[in-house]
Design goal:
It is built from three helices and six strands, in the order H-H-E-E-H-E-E-E-E. The protein is an alpha+beta fold and about 150 residues long. The chain has a six-stranded mixed beta sheet, covered by helices on one side. It starts with 6 loop residues before the first helix and ends in an 18-residue tail after the last strand.
Length: about 150
């Protein structure tokens, strides 16, 4: 685990490690049992850890031999007692078994965290991407220079 004191950076480090190793249990452990998610892919929203664990299981299984490297930029958070809210730009890069880069995409992340006896847990997560007006398609590449 990281030595970061910022709860958002702690969670992002653990998230990246869980995704890279396709560890569903470690991934799910980052979230509160009653988490509410506005994910960018597939469904409008999800409620509860069981639904989110199922999503992660399906995602990781769909990768086959590929792995996904998650990196973040512009991560910022504000903490008040046992609550924190943060945001970041995440990049998901698919890597082939031979180590070559296959594809990548970026998305915006906003999370609300609550500290409990098990540490910081995500209680709400919202991912998004801007929509290009003319085409109505999501913009999945963060512009250089942001």
């Amino acid at each position: 685990m990281t030595t970061q004191t910022d709860p958002l950076l702690q969670v992002l480090d653990a998230y990246a490690a869980a995704v890279l190793t396709k560890d569903v249990a470690a991934f799910a452990a980052l979230y509160d049992a009653d988490v509410h998610l506005f994910d960018m892919w597939g469904s409008w929203s999800m409620q509860g850890i069981a639904a989110w664990r199922d999503m992660a299981s399906g995602w990781f299984a769909s990768l086959g031999d590929e792995r996904v490297v998650v990196s973040s930029q512009q991560a910022q958070s504000t903490q008040l007692g046992d609550l924190a809210i943060g945001h970041a730009i995440l990049t998901f890069t698919a890597i082939a078994a031979d180590g070559s880069k296959l594809r990548s995409l970026d998305n915006r992340l906003t999370v609300a965290l609550r500290r409990n006896d098990d540490g910081w847990k995500i209680i709400h997560e919202h991912t998004s991407a801007p929509i290009e007006h003319a085409s109505m398609k999501a913009v999945l590449q963060y512009p250089a220079g942001g």
